């Protein structure tokens, strides 16, 4: 069964990747053909292979919808081709000429104070110019023009036909919160049954979420970049701002969930008998996470999730029922504060609200 679950998660991941990238890939393919058509039939260059190359390099990165990287690649390709054209026309092709071309292309790119991506692309483009096409004044000039055409069409496509800025962010957040709910439910089930194997499986599942958190933060930033270049998408900036606020809080909640799952496993290995109320509140928190997932990913108000989380806090027991169970209880309380923060509540306010919601239990005489 674990193998079947892994296969299902793998299929789900691949399907999600296809949904995220299908439209950008189609745009990239069509834009590359358009770049070739413009350079050949409009500008009149017989074999403008640098036009589709530049377009693919620019838009290929835009599958992840990161504008800055696309611009860096466009500049890198243009700088590399320009330097390669100018130098090879003067000194001709050859092994030492390639060394000179690469060195000068990197130096030229460094003048723009750019990152490694642009530097590498400038060097690669210079090498292509120096080796793939015989030098000549007319050819050199046309190669640089072709590069500009391809890069311009790539950037224009990214700006005028952007993917929806919220799609990837919402799907990523929904998947993370679904995982969080599953971890909470899985820990509760394992503690109730005393099943160490199930507890370890839940722990591995919790540990596998960090990559998704990083991808979610990247998707939110990418969404903001889309709204910056695409006027028709700017109305989504408010929703993206809400998701940007939620991402760090969800990240903290998942980190606490990993500790919670680890201590749940330890509680079972140590033979502890957790308080049944602790198991019940874990399940109730999982339900509240489901409410939060629905509201955050549909643009609804998070008032319902906030109420559900506060109601859950009111049911937190005073004791866990063992050393590791006490750690589980402490992590659960921390998660409540984190998730209240995901609803937009200030952290200090969330701590105070969670504390007020917990009832005072009289100590035994």
From TrEMBL:
Residue ranges annotated for the Integral membrane bound transporter domain, each copy included: 35-156
GO cellular component: membrane
Keywords recorded for this protein, A-Z: Membrane, Transmembrane, Transmembrane helix
Location relative to the cell: Membrane
Organism of derivation: Actinomycetospora cinnamomea
Main location: membrane
InterPro entries in the cross-refs: Memb_transporter_dom
Signal peptide: none
Record membrane topology: Multi-pass membrane protein
Chain coiled-coil ranges: none
Identification of the protein by name: Uncharacterized membrane protein YgaE (UPF0421/DUF939 family)
Residue spans crossing the bilayer: 21-39, 45-64, 71-92, 98-119
């Amino acid at each position: 069964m674990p193998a079947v679950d892994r296969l299902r998660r793998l299929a789900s991941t691949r399907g999600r990747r296809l949904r995220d990238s299908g439209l950008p890939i189609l745009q990239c393919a069509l834009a590359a053909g358009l770049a070739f058509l413009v350079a050949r039939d409009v500008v009149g260059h017989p074999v403008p292979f640098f036009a589709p190359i530049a377009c693919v390099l620019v838009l290929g990165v835009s599958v992840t919808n990161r504008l800055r990287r696309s611009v860096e690649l466009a500049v890198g390709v243009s700088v590399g081709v320009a330097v390669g054209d100018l130098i090879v026309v003067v000194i001709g092709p050859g092994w030492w000429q390639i060394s000179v071309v690469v060195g000068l292309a990197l130096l030229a790119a460094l003048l723009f104070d750019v990152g490694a991506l642009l530097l590498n692309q400038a060097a690669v483009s210079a090498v292509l110019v120096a080796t793939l096409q015989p030098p000549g004044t007319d050819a050199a000039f046309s190669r640089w023009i072709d590069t500009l055409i391809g890069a311009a069409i790539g950037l224009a496509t990214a700006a005028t036909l952007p993917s929806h800025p919220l799609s990837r962010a919402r799907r990523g957040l929904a998947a993370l919160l679904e995982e969080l709910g599953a971890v909470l439910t899985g820990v509760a089930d394992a503690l109730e049954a005393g099943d160490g194997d199930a507890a370890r499986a839940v722990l591995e599942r919790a540990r596998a979420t960090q990559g998704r958190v990083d991808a979610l933060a990247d998707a939110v930033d990418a969404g903001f970049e889309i709204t910056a270049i695409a006027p028709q998408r700017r109305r989504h900036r408010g929703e993206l701002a809400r998701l940007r606020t939620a991402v760090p809080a969800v990240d903290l909640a998942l980190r606490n969930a990993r500790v919670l799952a680890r201590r749940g496993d330890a509680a079972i290995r140590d033979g502890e008998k957790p308080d049944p109320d602790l198991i019940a509140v874990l399940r109730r928190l999982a339900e509240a996470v489901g409410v939060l997932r629905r509201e955050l990913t549909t643009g609804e108000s998070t008032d319902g999730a906030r109420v559900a989380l506060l109601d859950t806090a009111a049911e937190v027991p005073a004791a866990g029922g063992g050393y590791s169970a006490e750690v589980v209880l402490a992590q659960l309380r921390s998660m409540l504060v984190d998730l209240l923060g995901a609803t937009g509540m200030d952290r200090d306010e969330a701590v105070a609200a969670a504390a007020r919601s917990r009832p005072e239990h009289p100590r035994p005489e």
